Amino acid sequence: MLDGLTWDLVALQLFTGLALGAVYVLLAVGLSLIFGMLTVVNFAHGAFYLVGAYVGYEVLTLGGSFWLSLAVVPAAVGLLGLAVERVLIRPLYGRSVDDPLLLTFGLGYVITELVRIAFGKSGLPFDTPDALQGAADIGIGFFPLYRLFVMAVTAAVLLALWVALERTRFGLIIRAGARDPVIVRVLGVDVATVWLAVFGIGTAIAGLAGLMAAPLQGVAPEMGSTILAEAFVVTVVGGMGSLAGAVAAGLVVGVVVSMTSLVAPEMAKVSIFALMAVVLLVRPQGFFGRAGLMSG
């Protein structure tokens, strides 16, 4: 099974895992942002990822470019997220975590069925942009340009998110509101608007993740439900609500899947859940999570 393995091949596979992990990171960061700040377990997150891929496909079909879709997709999916938070999620704040969980589970199902009705059940092709086709020499071999681009976009989003949360007044309000919304409200801050913005940002990042994944795997109605399970594994492994945990776990899961594919391809998907089981046995709250977040 291991015949023919070389250090260069292992290193390239490791890099492939980091590129795969970059998509997991984008998806899990949005999921963790919403849960960490709003305590909403968003089971519709995979559907927002799905919508992002299809909006990108529509932009290309209507004659736009991939670069235009980089702006249109996060904006469109973010606006959808704002509408969902305002109409469906907001009335459930303060209730059990089960209520928004069940609502978003049903919402994800509805969105997926609407996409099937609008675009059909078959998958659709999504070509890699011309400028990102081919491969670049990274010292250990040639690596696809588009995967390098995905890693760069993920790094840029994480940097922007870190600056927004750690270096701006808006980020200070979000962090304070997550700890004690009553005090923040007493200080005159419109907490409802802050939560609205957080949900919109989280869904916009999910849409961007769907666009990034589209040239790698095509566009299909099932892509949201498939990735949702993997995104929750990443979130649980990293620690529910932890952005740092989402980043670390996303990269670890990507590498584990990629390296397992190298030696035992049929076990690649199983390896995700095996990793989660091991982590939960050793550290039930995940890499950087806090115990008790799901209670109440």
Mean pLDDT: 89
Q: What is the 3D form?
A: globular
- Which range does the strand content fall in? under 5%
What is the gyration radius calculated from CA atoms? Answer: 19 Å
Count of separate DSSP helical elements: 11
Number of DSSP-assigned strands:
2
Largest sheet: 2 strands, antiparallel
Strand order of the largest sheet: 1-2
Portion of residues in helices?
over 70%
- Structural category is mainly alpha
Measured distance between first and last alpha carbons: 49 Å
Residue runs with pLDDT of under 50 for 5 or more positions:
none
Draw up the topology in text:
Blueprint: H1 7-38, H2 45-61, H3 66-89, H4 98-119, E1 135-137, E2 142-144, H5 145-166, H6 169-179, H7 181-186, H8 191-217, H9 223-238, H10 243-263, H11 268-282
Antiparallel strand pairs: 1-2
What does this 3D model show about the protein?
Strands 1-2 form a two-stranded antiparallel sheet. Helices cover 72% and strands 2% of the residues. The model has no long low-confidence stretch (mean pLDDT 89). The protein is built from eleven helices and two strands; from the N terminus they run ααααββααααααα. 42% of the residues are buried. The chain has 296 residues and is mostly helical. α3 crosses α8 (191-217) and α5 packs across α6.
